[in-house]
Amino acid sequence: MPNSMTGYSVSKHIDNSCDVACEIKSVNHRFLEISTKPNDLSNKLDIFIRNTLQKKLERGAVDVRFKFNQTSIYSYSVNKKSLKNLRTLLNDLAIENPQNISLSDIKNFPGIFESKQENQISDVIFKKVFLNAFKEFMKDRSLEGEKIKKVFNKKIKKIALSQKKLEKAIPAINKTRMSQLNSKIKKLNVNLEPEKLNQEAALLILKHDVAEELERIKFHLDSMQKELSSKQAKGKKIDFILQELFRETSTLSVKLDKPSLKELALNMKLAVEEMREQAQNLE
Questions:
Q1: In 3-state terms, what secondary structure has residue 13?
Q2: Mean pLDDT of all residues in the chain?
Q3: Which of 26, 66, 82, 164 has an alpha carbon 20 to 30 Å from 124's alpha carbon atom?
């Protein structure tokens, strides 16, 4: 079954220390293009995300975004060496009771009182949120692919029905051409040997013969259904088959001159063109 290149998902993690959200979305692209934000994610996390995506995806512009907040926890410390130097200085300056220095006395002295933000969100949490989002993202692409497959099946049935109608009409078409040729010869009052007449009729029928095109169309439709049912359906292969179908239906519409049959061929061509537009979404 084919997958769509378009998809969207979001996953969240919330606890007492932080909340993290991961959003993944993708659109059509000729190749696989991955973007991660914010740019200051750890190198290991960025590599993990890219490797995970590359193992499962072949095409599409994929955007992975994280949004997060965390509760700030600080640790505090005093630089004892700097504090000792301060006390020595106060002794040298004959300051009374240098040992009784309070926090309010030293807080404005640089290098003595230090604070540090301890907590950072673990890559384990980022990975967990990303993997949950990625799982839903793959489901969404699969569902979109299933919708496209249903559209394709309807179009294929429509084309196949027209193809069968045209196949049945071929004998009558050739008979009509033979009759028209005989009428023209009679009007021109030209005497042609039966062998020569048969040759001219054969050339005329061959020029407008659509049996080969109809046979190829049937073959391409069968190939399309086979690829759509494959577990490893490829958008590029489907697009190639549709190019071939478009070529055959175009030739068919040119060769047919009877209005009702020509309309059938044009409708087949239109259905193929509609599928080609949808195929641009397939991976």
A1: strand
A2: 84
A3: 26
Query: Mind listing the pLDDT tens digit for each residue in 33-82?
Result: 999 998 778 899 999 999 999 999 999 999 999 998 876 666 667 777 77
**Cα separation of 23 and 127, whole Å?**
13
Q: Residue 163 is inside which H or E element, if any?
A: helix 123-188
CA distance 9 to 22: 8
DSSP-based helix, strand, coil % in the chain, nearest 5 = 60, 15, 20
Q: Which of 247, 271, 258, 266 is nearest to 208 (CA)?
A: 258
**Residue 282: count of CB within 10 angstroms of its CB:** 25
Going by C-beta distance under 8 Å and a sequence separation of 6 or more, which residues neighbour residue 125? 13, 18, 20
d(CA 157, CA 236): 22
Ranges in the chain, pLDDT < 50: none
Nearest Cα residue to 156 out of 5, 25, 268: 268
